[in-house]
Amino acid sequence: MRTPNSRSTSQRSATSLAPKSSPAAKPAGVNRRVVLYGHRALRTKSRLIGELTSDLVKFLEDLKVSMLTQDGLGLAANQIAETVAAFAINPRAVDDDREPYCIINPEVVATEGLVEAEEGCLSLPGLFDFLPRPEFVRISGLNEELQPITVEGTRLLARALLHEIDHLNGVLFIDHLSESRRRMLGTKLKELEERERCA
């Protein structure tokens, strides 16, 4: 999910149960290209991760670095063309003093409330729209050591967590818009598809 612009600043409020990382810890991965609308990975349901390997550790670092370098609040694995069930989240983008971290094999446990707010996506640059999402979400999953973890978020963090879980199921935020609104975005979507074909 794209870091919100100033129009969304007033909506920033968040909580999280994710463990804090060492203050000195910095991702050691590399920045990878975020694929755009039209790439097949964005419409592919991600497969669960079952084993902690050195390749997975490196990939999770790449995911965090790519998210931070491209100013994202969150980034799903399939946005860098890897269809595994993992995403990175940057709590600092919502004024939560925690290191960026990854969640593996996430599942929504509970939601509460409903709030409409503007949303954007790194794979759909230049497109923003308002849509309703739960105001609170609790998810379960695994941390970067494949240990069970529970994460809670409110408002913008909840929106980001749900946005990234949608990605892992091959769903984009524009899929939540009305059919008439999606038709209005048709020209922009075709431009993004062309950019992706030429990348």
From TrEMBL:
<keyword id="KW-0479">Metal-binding</keyword>
<comment type="function">
    <text>Removes the formyl group from the N-terminal Met of newly synthesized proteins. Requires at least a dipeptide for an efficient rate of reaction. N-terminal L-methionine is a prerequisite for activity but the enzyme has broad specificity at other positions.</text>
</comment>
<dbReference type="InterPro" id="IPR036821">
    <property type="entry name" value="Peptide_deformylase_sf"/>
</dbReference>
<feature type="compositionally biased region" description="Low complexity">
    <location>
        <begin position="13"/>
        <end position="26"/>
    </location>
</feature>
<feature type="binding site">
    <location>
        <position position="163"/>
    </location>
    <ligand>
        <name>Fe cation</name>
    </ligand>
</feature>
<protein>
    <recommendedName>
        <fullName>Peptide deformylase</fullName>
        <ecNumber>3.5.1.88</ecNumber>
    </recommendedName>
</protein>
<keyword id="KW-0378">Hydrolase</keyword>
<dbReference type="GO" id="GO:0042586">
    <property type="term" value="F:peptide deformylase activity"/>
</dbReference>
<feature type="compositionally biased region" description="Polar residues">
    <location>
        <begin position="1"/>
        <end position="12"/>
    </location>
</feature>
<feature type="active site">
    <location>
        <position position="164"/>
    </location>
</feature>
<dbReference type="Pfam" id="PF01327">
    <property type="entry name" value="Pep_deformylase"/>
</dbReference>
<comment type="similarity">
    <text>Belongs to the polypeptide deformylase family.</text>
</comment>
<feature type="region of interest" description="Disordered">
    <location>
        <begin position="1"/>
        <end position="26"/>
    </location>
</feature>
<dbReference type="GO" id="GO:0046872">
    <property type="term" value="F:metal ion binding"/>
</dbReference>
<dbReference type="InterPro" id="IPR023635">
    <property type="entry name" value="Peptide_deformylase"/>
</dbReference>
<feature type="binding site">
    <location>
        <position position="167"/>
    </location>
    <ligand>
        <name>Fe cation</name>
    </ligand>
</feature>
<feature type="binding site">
    <location>
        <position position="121"/>
    </location>
    <ligand>
        <name>Fe cation</name>
    </ligand>
</feature>
<keyword id="KW-0408">Iron</keyword>
<keyword id="KW-0648">Protein biosynthesis</keyword>
<dbReference type="GO" id="GO:0006412">
    <property type="term" value="P:translation"/>
</dbReference>
